[in-house]
């Protein structure tokens, strides 16, 4: 290998690593904004954001609970009340990117109005009106793969070739976005760990994660504390940090551009170890 080729490879490895972004999951308690605990929960959310920023987070992901596996549907109004005041408060107090986890066109519209930087849609803009409202903005979009629907998707997930299926889904959603006037440059892809996938499926997706890079778009990995970690290790949700870090690092080594995590400080530490190693790689 020539010296210049080698240098370019080193640079590109470092750039990929140095540009990895940490998306911190903001826990928003389901009923926290409709009861007497509103003020307390609101302030604890802002405190969490402050902590995550101090620990080096790049994007804060606010979820309205409706996208969680097994979750029941939440009304548009409930989701807006839960998420938008928090978005406004974060944007007025901190200089940080905010992602809104939603599948509803009305919520997406409000999120855009109040300065969200990304829409994280586990339904990949397949719900009514989503493509249209996104097309009228320039916000970034995370398109996630899911087989089935949250309430039932873990009952009996089946694939012919899981990687091919996910890649084909991505191609179709990218195509739909482009035909709706949403530039490809705005998209991030996410294979959706745990969304209509067995533990074995999830590990195959992680082992072959680099395949998703072939579409030329940034890729997000959301593995933190999931049952693919808990079931394999037989660990409760609060004992999954080591497993989550190991999995996140494997995703980053295969080109993940964003890791979606609960534990920001520990994930930033793990990334910094990778960066220290990367400068000596050829
Ligand atoms: C219970 C089980 C609660 C699972 C919450 C979850 C992803 C996501 C979620 C992901 C993107 C969680 C999940 N997972 N959005 N939202 N990618 N883009 O662990 O993997 O937070 S919900």
User: Low-confidence stretches at least 5 residues in length (pLDDT < 50)?
Assistant: none
> Could you give the order of the helices and strands?
HEHEHEHEHEHEHEHHEH
How many β-strands, per DSSP?
8
Bound molecules: ligand 7PM
Reading side by side through the largest sheet, how are the strands ordered? Answer: 6-5-4-3-2-1-8-7
How confident is the prediction overall: mean pLDDT?
91
How much helicity do the residues have? Answer: 40-55%
Strand content: 5-15%
Shape: globular
Overall structural class, as computed from helix and strand content, comes to alpha/beta
From the alpha carbons, calculate the radius of gyration and give it in angstroms: 19 Å
Instruction: Report the sheet with the most strands, covering strand number, pairing sense and barrel closure.
Output: 8 strands, parallel
Looking at how many chains there are and whether they match, the oligomeric state comes to single chain
Task: Tell me the number of helical segments per DSSP (H or I, 4 or more residues long).
Answer: 10
Distance between the termini: 10 Å
């Amino acid at each position: 290998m020539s010296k210049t080729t080698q240098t370019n490879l080193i640079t590109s490895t470092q750039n990929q690593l140095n540009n990895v972004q940490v998306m911190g999951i903001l826990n928003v308690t389901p009923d926290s904004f409709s009861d007497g605990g509103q003020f307390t929960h609101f302030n604890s959310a802002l405190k969490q954001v402050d902590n995550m920023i101090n620990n080096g987070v790049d994007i804060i992901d606010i979820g309205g609970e409706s996208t969680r596996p097994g979750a029941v549907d939440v009304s548009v109004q409930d989701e807006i009340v839960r998420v938008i005041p928090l978005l406004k408060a974060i944007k007025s107090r901190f200089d940080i990117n905010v992602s809104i986890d939603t599948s509803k066109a009305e919520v997406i519209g409000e999120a855009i109005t109040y300065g969200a930087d990304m829409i994280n849609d586990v339904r990949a803009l397949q719900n009514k009106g989503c493509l249209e409202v996104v097309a009228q903005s320039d916000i970034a979009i995370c398109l996630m793969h899911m087989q089935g629907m949250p309430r039932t998707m873990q009952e009996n997930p089946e694939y012919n070739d899981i990687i091919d299926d996910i890649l084909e889904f991505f191609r179709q959603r990218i195509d739909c976005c482009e035909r709706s006037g949403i530039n490809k440059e705005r998209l991030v892809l996410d294979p959706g760990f745990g969304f209509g996938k067995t533990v074995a499926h999830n590990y195959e997706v992680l082992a072959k994660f680099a395949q998703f890079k072939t579409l030329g778009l940034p890729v997000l990995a959301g593995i933190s504390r999931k049952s693919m970690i808990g079931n394999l290790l037989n660990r409760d949700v609060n004992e999954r940090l080591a497993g989550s870090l190991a999995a996140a690092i494997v995703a980053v080594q295969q080109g993940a551009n964003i890791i979606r995590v609960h534990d920001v400080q520990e994930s930033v530490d793990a990334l910094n170890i990778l960066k220290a190693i990367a400068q000596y790689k050829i």
